[in-house]
Amino acid sequence: MKNLWLVFGVLLWVPFLAQDVMAQNKQDGGAVSYSAGNLVYGDSALEIPPQVYTAFVEMPPLEARYQQLRAREYTLLPEDMKRLKSYRQTLKGLIMVEVGYPGCGPCRQLFAGLLEENNGEPSLLQKWQNKGGRFYQLDWQKDHNKNSDKKISTLWEIKMVPVLLFFKDGVLVARLNGMNVKNPSMTMSEIGAQIDNLNP
Q1: Domain spans of the chain?
Q2: Plot region of 93 (φ>0 → left; ψ -120 to 50 → alpha; else → beta)
Q3: What is the DSSP string of 4-56?
Q4: Angle at alpha carbon of residue 178, lines to 173 and 182, rounded to 5°
Q5: What would the CATH number be for the domain defined by 93-200?
Q6: pTM flag (> 0.85)
Q7: What is the arithmetic mean of pLDDT over 175-200?
Q8: What is the mean pLDDT of the chain?
């Protein structure tokens, strides 16, 4: 009977512990602290928050419209300028987005490579965070199935996964398409080079 109560108590305690761990992992609206042992691809803590997703989709067309009007010596309406300023602030700094989905083997392999530490060296994601970079995951299937043209997979012409998108202040500055499953170290080297080349 005593053992039964012990098991019951543990079962009640585990969900609260899991919530506490997730709360500790969340930082800066979606960026998290990474370790290869406690995160798997598709973890909800890594998904793009709604306000960031909206900024990714809305800012480029608004920015283009602003530039066109500026060339004609016109300005955006005050509400448009307010939106543009808000989107720029939301996307300020370095952001890396991995586009994939949980059932994609190469996507999981890519994510595992981002988390891997080599010979005591920090992982690629840790190096990215050390630069102040944020990292998000986008479920390509969910995004692709949206009944709207306001989706990242359409805006950035993503037709295959995995894809890594590198943004600086809301501008797409680099992308990596696919994963070399036969020689993953080559893909990781390319990602490492991009991280080294980008500065806040």
Answers
A1: 49-91, 93-200
A2: left
A3: HHHHHHHHHHHHHHHHHHHHHHEETBTEE---TTT--TT-GGGBPPHHHHHHH
A4: 135
A5: 3.40.30.10
A6: no
A7: 88
A8: 79
